[in-house]
Amino acid sequence: xxxxxxxxxxxxxxxxxxxxxxxxxxxxxxxxxxLWPVEYExxxxxxxxxxxxxxxxxxxxxxxxxxxxxDVAQQRLSSWTVEEKVSELSKLYTDYQAQGKTQEADQVxxxxxxxxxxxxxxxxxxxxxTSGVAAPTPTDVPTASAPGAQAxxxxxxxxxxxxxxxxxxxxxxxxxxxxxxxxxxxxxEQVAAVEAEPAWTGTGPPPLLQKTSSYVLGMDNFDESFAIxxxxxxxxxxxxxxxxxxxxxxxxxxxxxxxxxxxxxPNTRTVTKVLMSDFANSNEALRNKLSSRGEPILxxxxxxxxxxxxxxxxxxxxxxxxxxxxxPSFGYFKSLKxxxxxxxRPAMDEDSDLA
Length: 355
Known about the structure:
Elements: H1 3-35, H2 50-67, H3 70-76, H4 82-98, H5 102-119, H6 124-131, H7 159-193, E1 209-216, E2 223-229, E3 235-246, E4 255-264, E5 269-276, H8 278-282, H9 284-291, E6 295-298, E7 304-308, E8 312-323, E9 333-344
Parallel strand pairs: 5-6
Antiparallel strand pairs: 1-9, 2-3, 3-4, 4-5, 7-8, 8-9
Helix pairs in contact: 1-7, 2-3, 2-4, 2-5, 4-5, 4-6, 5-6
């Protein structure tokens, strides 16, 4: 066989291997990201994608502007690092400035200034927010080698070595596919392990949202939020539950109170109620401290209460709760599970809370 024929044969062999690898990768991506994509539920706020982070930070700014409750804003962002807070506030400020919304941009600066003062950020944090997100500095990118600098290929090719390389490439494609399938299997196992939300059995139309917020001891950065949307994906607001107060700074945190909250986007209003342990409820100093964050409520199994804004109503029910052992007695929660059901509020409804 001539050297030219040998080269053509090798070329066709390599093309076949590359095509097989590409097809394998594409099939794996198709299965993993299109046919059966992983869906995450009950994510923490710092796990949101960029657009959702912006919406969440905008909601926090709106809520603070209306209520001036800095401790509530801190709680909303308690699981975020300083860098994440600065980055998202900077992006939001820049977006508002670009849209000519100077008042909203000033509100971002106001919240950032207070957070910087209370949390002790570096002084240049506020300057970064007011100046917006700076454009990234171009970095040196290596240039491609000139055609004349290409490595010389020997005239006689070792087909066995090329075959091994092709096999390794194909094996890499199969490995990618296997990892995707394993990812899907684990995802299905996780989904199966998640407690199914109860079916709507009430009268009238189904709720806008029906979720269960679940806490267990050791979730020291617990802060869950759920978007409230219409069937047309119109974002009306959010509700959720997060840690409000712990008995001490130990690990795991012994949580004595949780904040259950509702944010009404159309009316830019946030209402908060504080679920307290029996110890927190009976301790006058601690109860007074928690009362400044929202209406205090003693947690009890099966207990229900209502959060209402001009446009939304959320019924919260304590599905399950258990106190931790030790002193003080009935002082902190070992577990707490609260079902949240959101409905649009009828226009003629009057403010009312159910104990």
